[in-house]
Sequence to fold (377 residues):
Amino acid sequence: MGARPPTLREKRRYMLVSVEPFGTIIDRKDLYYAVCDATTSLWGDMTAAVIMPAVIASEGQYVIIRCRRGTERELSIALSTITCCRDNPIALRIVAASGTIDTLREKIKRLQNPDTEPASQHEFMVGEKLFQILYCYGQKVDVIEKGFKNTNRLFLTKEDLEEL
Amino acid sequence: MKITDACVYPYPCGDSSVRRMALEARSLGFDRLVAAGISSGGHYGIEISNGVLIRDITMKDLITRVRQERNSNAVVSVQAGDNGFNRSVTGVKGVHILRGIQSADKTAFDHVTAKMAADNRVAVDIDLSPLISGRGVLRQRAIHRYRDILLLERRFEFPITLSSHARSILEMRAVREISGLCSLLDMDAPDVEKAFTGIDTVTTSPNPAVKVI
Fold:
């Protein structure tokens, strides 16, 4: 079956979403399941079928999610109920919505954070546990507990580090 | 009027420092946070109010505790209990917020308590965490209870506050996202705006009916 002419195709909208915490490796399939689960859980199968969410692309910490035009509100509410993706705690922050993917790709280029400092080997104590810096970007510093398993991640700022 | 998240739990209760939460709150569109167990102040242009949460306590101890906090400028919240307890709490001077109404008994908040809350300017908190992270029956029950409370709110006009109960920056939500979640409870934009500034209503002293000169 050939592609339909543009006038007969259903209209779509694309949402640019930022995935937190910084440095999360996004598997599009896992994120798709998380989005579908959240949409179905909140709105039910009928509305989820109308929304028709899909993860189109991911670039760095940004993801483009597609929905049917007119269902942006429902999708954005459903996205705010996503708390984890395959047992990894995440948060999706909606950045923009557009009718074309190209516009969002251009926005991603403008938004990409170039001043991210890599992880350092510097270690410090928080409470009684040993932590090391995972990411440092702007004022934000993400630190992770040293160890092999059950390592907690803390979200701090540079001022917090100076006080430690 | 400041847009306020009425309850967050920074480190050590959660995994994010209060400064990081303030930084995140600024990017999410908030003006103020009520942070449990953190002294009042400000970071990155966000006002931080000290939040005191009182729970699992007898009425006598509650009154003593509230009296201790009276001069501390803290936002005092009490975990809801049964109907009798909630009625008593709304009558205690110095209590600002009644929390956890979604997990209390079905009859815990009735029209009498609602009237008392309105008269004594005690806010009822809408905890958004069951809507965000809850699934199935838990979320359905919370939506049902909140709709019921909002029905009483429209009738008696007691203050409402909105809180994310975030223990991490990942659990915080933007003002627009919270407005979207509140639309599930049949709250329109002015209702949400009023709820965001509900803390101002309960913490500022009311204009006296008679002014003594």
About this structure: The mean pLDDT of chain B is 91. The interface with chain A takes residues 11-12, 15-17, 19-20, 23, 44, 131-133, 135-136, 139, 168-174, 176-177, 180-181, 183-184 of chain B (CB under 8 Å).
